[in-house]
């Protein structure tokens, strides 16, 4: 008795889990939290959230940094509760597929011949036509085949269907969503994200790991170098695009690949994707004599959304010059202690200040890269492809027709799950073709009454 009670409890639980309303509820939850994860910046520092989601300042989402950090909304897609929702949703889809969809498909593929005498007891809408002479099974089979129905014949009974893909497609919709969830979990456990700010001309390794899966592995034999960094500007000096030229070598120093990347043109190499995400101006390299070089750090200043970089170079105890740079294409503006513009210099142009040769040799820049391994992205793309195709195919109507031709009695009934008007057209077409090849000019003699059941 205990065994049957336990079995009933499990079965009822599975039925609730696989119900359409519960699946839709889980899907809406996933969509809501995914939107929330898109609105809230992910994988930022605590200071970032304290600044932009402070308790005192109001914000559009009506949430503060404590709420974000306590619930893990700063790394929402890696939280246990979000992945638990994904797991429950996947279980719901799997149970629904094997308990409802697959049995429904097997039932749809059966040859279901109807006993019309028995069916009259429960189907009052089914009407038998008047007595007709010369009824022909072969003509009806031809008429059904002409309308692209698959026909099965048993004695005086016919069963026909078309649009079986419309019944198969929902199964693939479920499988595609499961594939998408598997790809997401695969990325979660085997992927990683790193961010690096690398000076131009420097060699780099992957060190600054932002997030990594439990089973992810970092490439150890990959060495990169930033060969060049440059920016394209619009006519109004706004940034159009910025580029980094990257080279990769193996541990023996052998050249592997070289490519210029930009914001919308990443580099994919050995399963690793390198994205161009950021940049910064670091310093000026100044030559004061043939043997003396000075490297001064530039400070970024933003005044009324006007950005420039500035540094101060002392010439004596009471004298210094201020260097201002607005972008990589402009010249360097040199001001004295009183704020008077002394001169604008281009790179490698010489200027004498207090009899000291002053040459700006280089503007030192860094490029910001995001390095990402996402082994599940191809699985997710395949899942979405199957989802789109199966969603379109699922709109194909699944239609069934039962025919009984016994002596002078001709009976026809049918059902479809959607597109009722098209099904009515098929019935009318079958009626006309059957009348034509049955040598009967009067359609009124064959009264085909069908029952359209929406399933």
Describe this protein's structure.
The protein is of the alpha+beta class. It has four domains: 2-94, no CATH class; 109-163 and 397-445, TATA-Binding Protein (2-Layer Sandwich); 189-280 and 368-376, no CATH class; 281-361, no CATH class. 34% of the residues lie in helices and 33% in strands. It is built from ten helices and 20 strands. The chain has helices spanning 2-17, 20-39, 46-52, 65-71, 80-108, 116-119, 137-146, 165-190, 377-393, 420-437; strands at 150-154, 157-162, 192-199, 203-204, 209-212, 223-233, 239-249, 255-261, 267-269, 272-289, 292-297, 299-303, 306-314, 320-325, 332-335, 341-345, 350-353, 356-373, 399-406, 409-416. Helix 5 runs antiparallel to helix 8 and helix 7 crosses helix 10. The chain is elongated, with a radius of gyration of 37 Å. It starts with a helix and ends in an 18-residue tail after the last helix. Mean pLDDT is 80; it is low at 118-133 and 441-455. Its main location: membrane. It is found in: Cellular thylakoid membrane; Membrane. InterPro entries: Cyt_c_bgen_Ccs1/CcsB/ResB, ResB-like_domain. May interact with CcsA.
